[in-house]
């Protein structure tokens, strides 16, 4: 499959970058993560458009920063040469274009599929030797909700005082941003010369980091020769249950751990490793990997504030941005471009 993918990449590189990316999405997801067909006995009408086609359409929306599904439908329906090429690259025909309502419905339902494809890309980065999963990093960031805030006093009473409030969002606190009304992006990334997301999830802003750790680590990439040995995280992940979970998964969780008079012997072992020369070298990679990566993604795709309302839509749009970032880095690596991460801003016209 890798040889076929490499040959196809050489061919599609002659097209525009966007069209090349749309074609690449189909190659990767079809080979590694087949589309789940609508169950024959399930309720509701079967999907007319496959998940890959819908994902490609939403990638177009993110690429051109279209502010609504109505704008996406209008762009795809414009009778110009390049627009027709983009539409065909999405897998659509000129006589068969999803309606705006179809885009609205599907945006609420594709987040699980996007998470799976983010995981697929993570495995592809490892299996192709682009990254080494020896040391990984995890972190989260608050994302402001679109529209007006919903004050806690009104929220407790179940009162929505004005229109334009995202009632799915919640209040969360961080030491850098203070209190913020919105959502939270959780992510695991590599820490080597090429830093890319490997796993991601979205919650409301009030969800603690340690509650999402199990989900993020459930599908980490590894091979027989390349396995994860260390996971570095901030003090929000300092939880004995997470240390035990990490050990069962075959790696060590490394957090900032302080020494006190009453510190148990078990935790003293964690303190000793964190304060050791090796522990400090490992933990220092956090500041050069996941922290700048999160800010880079937020800057490129302008997801602060998030451009949609409602948890399902927020989840899909933000995770699509993560998936697109992975695919752009992968494309640049295969095209042997210098500094594949930095080239992304120029590729999408930031």
Q: Main sheet?
A: 6 strands, mixed
Distance between the termini: 33 Å
Total domains, how many?
A: 2
Quaternary arrangement of the chains shown?
Answer: single chain
SSE topology string: HHHHHHHEHEEEHEHEHHHHH
Radius of gyration: 21 Å
Please tally the helical runs, counting DSSP H or I stretches of 4 or more residues. Answer: 15
Number of strands: 6
Strand content: 5-15%
Uncertain spans, ≥5 residues at pLDDT below 50? 30-40
Overall spatial form: globular
The percentage helix is 40-55%
Mean pLDDT: 87
Structural class: alpha/beta
Please name the defining characteristics of this protein:
single chain, 350 residues, alpha/beta, 2 domains, six-stranded mixed β-sheet, 6 strands, globular
Summarize the structure.
With 350 residues, the chain is an alpha/beta fold. The protein is built from 15 helices and six strands.
What can you see in these coordinates?
With 350 residues, the protein is of the alpha/beta class. It folds into 2 domains: 148 residues, no CATH class; 170 residues, no CATH class. The chain has 15 helices and 6 strands. Strands 1, 2, 3, 4, 5 and 6 form a 6-stranded mixed beta sheet that branches. Helix 1 runs antiparallel to helix 2, helix 2 runs antiparallel to helix 3 and helix 3 packs across helix 14. The longest helix is centred in the last third of the chain and has 24 residues. The chain is globular. About 3% of the residues have low confidence.
